[in-house]
Amino acid sequence: GESVGLHLPTLSVQEGDNSIINCAYSNSASDYFIWYKQESGKGPQFIIDIRSNMDKRQGQRVTVLLNKTVKHLSLQIAATQPGDSAVYFCAENGANSKLTFGKGITLSVRP
Amino acid sequence: KAGVTQTPRYLIKTRGQQVTLSCSPISGHRSVSWYQQTPGQGLQFLFEYFSETQRNKGNFPGRFSGRQFSNSRSEMNVSTLELGDSALYLCASSLEGGTGNTIYFGEGSWLTVV
User: Which of A69, A95, B42, B54 has the fewest CB atoms within 10 Å distance of its CB?
Assistant: First the structure.
């Protein structure tokens, strides 16, 4: 069945380093993907999205890469800051706004 | 522009009771969807409403229901509460719904069932 999964449950990085969070999806028909950031006690915050007709999209300090061949999605955060510490989710947007989420990965930034 | 607003933020209910949660979408957004978030199951889709009609529904029992009003505001209701219903309930909105529309979430309503 459909699933969106994250490879690792936690990621610890040094402040100032770049972070890379990976995600695998199984539905080859998926055509839209979103990354969310969730801080403790808050709702998921939209970070960046990408459509299946693209393989890269850049935002402010973030880049999303999509590899449809291996059904892999990644989020790159440049110059990671303490404020980036949170749980990150990748999600596949299917029909009628239904999002299928991965389990989430915790990003911890070391000072 | 105000974001997605959910009320109440926190509530405690007793098993067997029912609860109603409210959501005001971003102004101009017509699609509202609801999700349940628990540590064990993660984020799971409940249902989506557009123009007062339920367009899509997740795999939840009939105790979970919702509705949408003409101003796009939405409510969800859980009847005969069970301990396992304790969760963060998230409302999300988008312009038209469907794939490709950015979906924004509210801060959620924390429900504890005792």
Answer: A69
Nearest CB to A43 within list B44, B56, B90: B90
What is d(CA B90, CA B85) in angstroms, rounded to the nearest whole number? 13
Hey, what amino acid is at A7? H
Nearest CB to B98; choose among A44, A96, A100 = A96
Q: In this structure, are residues B87 and A90 in contact, taking their beta carbons and an 8 Å threshold?
A: no
B78 residue type, one letter: V
| A12-68 residue pLDDT tens | 999 999 999 999 987 888 889 999 999 998 999 999 999 999 999 999 999 999 999
Comparing CA positions, the residue from A97, A104, A32 lying closest to residue B57 is: A97
| DSSP state letters, A1-19 | ---EEES-SEEEEETTS-E
State the nearest Cα–Cα gap between A104 and chain B, in angstroms. 8
Q: Which residue of A has its CA nearest to B31?
A: A97
Strands A10-14 and A105-110, sheet pairing: parallel
